[in-house]
Design goal:
alpha+beta; Heat Shock Protein 90; seven-stranded mixed sheet; 23 helices; elongated
Length: 722
């Protein structure tokens, strides 16, 4: 006979859960204000005023929405986790027909992030004004469990004070602020978030949010006007992907440069959109048969649970000369792009945080761009909005911590759809981007430094021919040298060895020949000229030997960097330079390349040499206490694009433009020849890679670089690695 005893045991929830769902679940205080504004939207508000009064140490959010009755407060607002906005209760609002943004029933708890004291005044049309007051610490501490022991005070005013006459709405006041000091940056970040709540491209005349900071107006008044800055973009792209198909409009509005012309293009009718490369690769990996991986998007299945996707991109070219030509202050434009650039997501015109924040690259654009900077765009180049319909995108569920959508299958599909749209724009813009680069070169912004070696040899011949005795003695030597120069050039080019630096080699030859010419014109004895020509032939012989060295072989990038660091170890110690090398320590990936070892080592060493010089230069110039010279070497790897090595430092940064930095004989370094980066560029090009000199901001778009490294960054992009 069984003696089992079964009983029902109640589940008890401690009061501390309210703090977990509020203060500790919300990432920062700006998000708490974001939640209050969303609640105002749900309440059919037309106007929302956010006031951060630091003199009174109070934050106020006032709206002109429908307000709340005592019954609503008791049975909905104080019912944590209520389903009043979910399932069958999720109905459109009476005034503007809005679907509620909040659906989890815990958003009101977010105010704990702002402060300990809470006061709410609310009134429905024609009813009494209601005041609710509570102290979060006292409330949560008044009972160990959430079982009816927690109570708040509710007062029904006999006379309306804050909403007199026929006014209605809700005011929420938070005092006992958690943040004691609000720096200028904090307020500007809040202004940026408040401004970004509404889509910059979606006109919503029925909802407006404003921010004021009494006594600190100067901290936020100069935040640039969004519409004015958007006019400085070079490309504008609009799209819509629906069950009917894909439609788009493309506009290229370049500055006034030679051979650049405005171009507009659009789809004639709803068509098909190709999946992005990433999406297609994923489909191929999952497919059992080759034809199961579709190249084109099928809207009927791809948009299930997501609905129509539409949006607009404003895309910039961040080179100084382009920004200057597009008008406005360059520094202001760059700062604005730093704050506002990215791809944001909006539902029914209200932002889904935190997509498009400065540190958020939810589409992985920057990683895609590393090895194809001229073809692909990064987050710092565009201000974009992707619009969704709230009713149709119900399968995209927002996270409880208010930071994006749950990362499930639907979100993964949405992400790939958005990436496919970006790739479509990239293909449209590529020829225009190349046209800009060509125009800049023609405009003289890139200085070509061609060494006219043939002219130097012809000049020496001409001098010799003026003197029969000299010609008899020297002409055989000059002809021999001319032949050897041609052979060196042929070997270098045919073997793909221009990476040795034709400029570097021929610069020395050119200088020697011109010296000999000068000596001949001044009547130097033939013996001295013969000796000079002999020395020149020795130089050519040594170059020929060097050209025969180092066949291409498989190399570990980690081992190459390690060798360069060992080579410079004494110099690092001597100059007191701190070196961080995640690629050597294993914190960033190793990858393999196929190239002549000595060429890659020389290129790496040139870049490290520059970093040593300019970090030491800044250290001695600025003499900032606690600041020491430092450099970092990191890597990234992509199976599609290969690997990249980034060398960044905390030196002075480049004093010349990117275009000039990789040209020969342009340098600001005392005693420098200006050939180091040019040599590196040629090495990279001739092993199938590329050299990139981004701004530090652009470099951080490519790879995570600590803020302490604020000088120069050089990126070596390798293809065909393993």
């Amino acid at each position: 006979m069984s003696n089992n005893i079964t009983e029902s045991i109640p589940v008890r929830v401690r009061s501390h859960i309210l703090r977990l769902l509020g203060d500790q679940l919300v990432g920062h205080d700006r998000l708490a204000i974001f939640e209050l504004v969303k609640n105002a939207y749900d309440a059919d508000a037309e106007d929302v005023q956010v006031v951060v009064d630091l003199r009174a140490k109070k934050i106020t959010v006032r709206d002109d929405g429908c307000g709340m009755s005592p019954d609503t407060i008791k049975n909905r607002w104080l019912d944590i986790g209520t389903d009043s906005k979910r399932g069958p209760n999720r109905v459109r609002s009476a005034r503007f027909g809005r679907l509620p943004l909040g659906e989890k029933g815990v958003g009101r708890l977010a105010v704990q992030k702002l402060g300990g004291q809470f006061r709410m005044i609310t009134r429905t049309k024609g009813a009494r004004e209601i005041v609710v007051e509570l102290d979060w610490g006292e409330l949560i501490g008044s009972s160990d469990y959430v079982d009816g022991g927690l109570k708040v005070r509710l007062t029904k005013r006999d006379k309306a004070v804050d909403f007199p006459g026929q006014q209605h709405g809700t005011i929420i006041e938070i005092s006992g602020l958690a943040r004691k000091e609000w720096a200028r940056k904090d307020l500007r970040d809040l202004k940026r978030l408040v401004v970004s709540l509404e889509s910059p491209f979606h006109t919503n005349d029925s909802f407006h949010v404003s921010l004021s900071v009494p006594g600190r107006e100067g901290d936020i008044d100069d935040v640039p006007d969004l519409k004015e800055l958007l006019r400085r973009s070079i490309w504008v792209y609009e799209f819509e992907l629906s069950n009917e198909g894909f439609t788009w409009k493309y506009s290229f509005g370049p500055p006034k440069l030679k051979n650049l012309h405005e171009r507009k293009e659009k789809s004639s009718s709803p068509g098909m959109l190709e999946w992005s490369d990433e999406a297609y690769r994923e489909a191929k990996a999952k497919a059992e048969k080759a034809d199961e991986a579709s190249i084109f998007i099928n809207p009927e299945t791809a948009l299930a649970g997501i609905g129509t996707i539409k949006g607009r991109f404003h895309v910039f070219y961040r080179r100084d000369e382009l920004l200057r030509l597009m008008g406005g202050d360059i520094r202001q434009t760059k700062q604005w792009l730093k704050d506002q650039a990215g791809i944001r997501v909006f539902r029914d015109g209200i932002r889904v945080y935190n997509y498009g924040e400065p540190e958020d690259d939810w589409l992985g654009l920057n990683a895609r761009r590393i090895n194809r900077p001229a073809e692909r765009i990064g987050t710092s180049q565009l201000v974009a909005a992707i619009e969704l319909d709230l009713a149709d995108s119900a399968a995209l569920q927002e996270k409880t911590n208010r930071e994006g959508f749950n990362e499930d299958e639907t979100f993964s599909r949405f992400r790939l759809l958005a990436l496919s749209v970006v790739q479509h724009f990239e293909k449209l813009h590529e020829p225009d981007r190349k046209a800009i680069d060509a125009a800049l070169r023609d405009d003289g912004s890139q200085i070509g430094s061609t060494i006219k070696l043939k002219d130097a040899i012809d000049g020496l011949k001409e001098v010799c021919n003026k003197d029969k005795e000299l010609s008899k003695t020297l002409t055989p030597f000059v002809k021999a040298i001319e032949k050897e120069v041609d052979q060196v050039r042929s070997v270098m080019l045919n073997a793909g060895m221009a990476g040795m630096g034709l400029a570097l080699v021929f610069h020395e030859i050119d200088r020697s020949i011109r010296t000999l010419t000068s000596l001949a014109e001044k009547g130097a004895p033939p013996e001295r000229l013969r000796n000079g020509l002999g020395d020149l032939r020795k130089m050519l012989d040594s170059i020929s030997v060097l050209l025969r060295q180092g066949k291409a072989r498989k190399l570990s990038m980690r081992e190459l960097v390690k060798q360069v660091l060992e080579l410079n170890e004494v110099r690092f110690q001597f100059h007191g330079i701190t070196v961080s090398a995640p690629i050597v320590t294993g914190e960033s990936p190793d990858f393999f390349i196929k190239a002549p070892q000595h060429l890659v080592l020389s290129a790496l060493n040139n870049i490290v040499d520059n970093a040593i010089y300019w970090t030491e230069y800044r250290y001695q110039r600025d003499k900032v206490s606690g600041r020491k010279p430092a450099l970092i070497i990191k890597s990234v790897w992509s199976s599609e694009d290969g690997g990249s090595v980034v060398i960044a430092d905390n030196g002075t940064g480049f004093a010349v433009s990117e275009a000039d930095a990789i040209q020969p004989f342009i340098t600001k370094r005392v005693g420098g020849m200006g050939l180091g980066l040019y040599y590196c560029k040629l090495v990279m090009e001739n092993i199938g890679g590329s050299l990139q000199i981004p701004s530090m901001g652009d470099a951080r778009d490519l790879i995570d670089i600590p803020k302490a490294f604020d000088g120069a960054a050089v990126v070596m992009n390798f293809k065909g690695g393993e």
